[in-house]
Amino acid sequence: MKLLEVTRDQVKGKVGVIAIGSVEQHGPHLPMGTDSLMAEWLASQLESSYPEEVILFPTLTYGCSFEHGNQPFIGVSYINMINFLTDLAESTKRAGLLSLIIVNGHGGNESLLDVVRRQVNFANDKFKVYLFSMVGRDKGLFNVIDMHAGSVETSRMFFLKPSLVRMEKLKEIRDFSVKEGVFQTITTDKANPYGVINVGGDIQVDPKKGEESMRNAYADLESLFLRVKQSLAINEG
Ligand SMILES: [Zn+2]
């Protein structure tokens, strides 16, 4: 079921699922909403497989993207996001949902999501926040390491929505070198002139690998959901 479509009596006793991503530059060839679209696909798959048990929240498309420096992004600060998500989780609990699974598509959200999880979970006995992340997956899928807008993300997007991958714009990227310290001490625009962090070579686009990556991620999200269900059943008993 979808949160915006159910009535107040339908929310109780369900598990909430919310996708969270970013609105930020993904090189010259991928959409600004790449991370949000991927997380949203996973969360909607879960809702369509378990419509009676899962409530799909509207996607939180904005995230924390300061690591992009002078390249375009639309986002909020870490502290605002922590407060926003903690409030959201607390009201989810008050509304009678059993737990909340956050499906994250964006690396810049990782550390704040860990804080939110700790803040909510250590203050509540039964209601828990669970995190499922797309970050750091599929490192061995290509012989390059895609840290941002590279082979993995481009191939995933090609599987999800090929029309959103501007293949002709790939030619604009003439330098794939990456300076040390990206995401730690320097922003993506300082690490690579095109803001693309694909360590080891140029971008390979393989829709089959993109599909494999998304389907494997869904299988892992589904098994997280089944574990959440199991722990809720134990809590009940
Ligand atoms: Zn991304």
Automatic annotation (TrEMBL):
Cofactors: Zn(2+)
One Pfam entry name: Creatininase
BP GO annotations: riboflavin biosynthetic process
SUPFAM superfamilies tied to this protein: Creatininase
Superkingdom field: Archaea
Protein name: Creatininase family protein
GO MF term (any one): metal ion binding
PANTHER family: 2-AMINO-5-FORMYLAMINO-6-RIBOSYLAMINOPYRIMIDIN-4(3H)-ONE 5'-MONOPHOSPHATE DEFORMYLASE (PTHR35005:SF1), 3-DEHYDRO-SCYLLO-INOSOSE HYDROLASE (PTHR35005)
Keywords of the record: Hydrolase, Metal-binding, Zinc
